[in-house]
Amino acid sequence: MFDFFHRERSDLRTVDPARVPPGQVVTQKWPVLHYGGVPKVDLKTWDFRLFGLVEQPIRLSWAEFQRLPRMTIRCDIHCVTRWSRLDNTFEGVAVKDVLELASVKANAKFVMIHAEKGFTTNLPLDDLLQPNVLLADTHDGQPLTPEHGWPLRLVVPHLYFWKSAKWVRGFEVLANDRPGFWEQYGYHMRGDPWKEERYS
Questions:
Q1: Are 90 and 173 in contact (CB under 8 A)?
Q2: Which of 4, 74, 114, 163 could be bridged to 29 by S-S, CB 3.0 to 4.6 A?
Q3: Mean per-residue pLDDT for 17-43?
Q4: Strand 47-52 and strand 168-174: pairing?
Q5: Using CA of residue 199, residue 27, residue 39, residue 171, what is the dihedral sign?
Q6: In the predicted model, is pLDDT for residue 7 greater than 70?
Q7: What CA–CA distance (Å, rounded) separates 111 from 127?
Q8: What's this model's pTM, rounded to 2 decimal places?
Q9: Domain locations in the chain?
Q10: Which positions ≥6 away from 74 have C-beta within 8 Å?
Q11: The dihedral of CA 179, 171, 37, 74: what is its sign?
Q12: Out of 3.90.1150.10, 3.20.20.370, 3.40.630.30, 3.90.420.10, which CATH number does the structure's domain 46-195 have?
């Protein structure tokens, strides 16, 4: 059951403990964790919406999204279930660039992330505006697999990975925070792994 936590002893010696938040175990594998089944996505009808407290709501097709400027980040990811995977490379579109397309209003403070099958997660706007936060479609040089969020997943490296929602379809910009799916079931409203903000 816990075989994905195994690392060779020589590997463990090379991991800088300052990179691993408290309570985490490093794995080389990328465990698949999500609620419910993997959605079937048709890129011909897929779209991404940005709405709520914005001057200009937007709706992008997959082709339009692919034409946006791209960026690559290298980061560590930390799951609330206590595994960490180091040195991941994600490529996609910077979230700050997407938000600029719609001109977020001055009273906006939070964003509700909407994904397939009605899944949601909430984030402070300031967290989404960090320069290494992106909407990714590739991981380690390969397209994301459906199990890991293809065609598009959010990547917020500085928070627990449930905040990096899979199968993202839109951002709803808000003045006030409200809980998303897992947050309604007791998960922390922000999820900082260095503070062990696992549950509320």
A1: no
A2: 4
A3: 88
A4: parallel
A5: positive
A6: no
A7: 10
A8: 0.90
A9: 46-195
A10: 87, 88, 89
A11: negative
A12: 3.90.420.10
Strands (E), the chain: 25-26, 47-52, 58-61, 71-78, 83-94, 110-115, 120-124, 134-139, 142-143, 153-155, 168-174
Residue pair 41/137 in contact by the 8 Å Cβ criterion: no
pLDDT of 191 reads 97
CB 159 within 8 A of CB 190: yes
| Dihedral of alpha carbons 79, 176, 119, 65, sign | negative
DSSP class of 189 = S
Which pair of tokens denotes residue 87?
């040195």
- Tens of pLDDT along 67-124? 999 999 999 999 999 999 999 999 999 999 999 999 999 999 999 999 999 999 999 9
CB 37 within 8 A of CB 96: no
The predicted model gives 179-194 an average pLDDT of 97
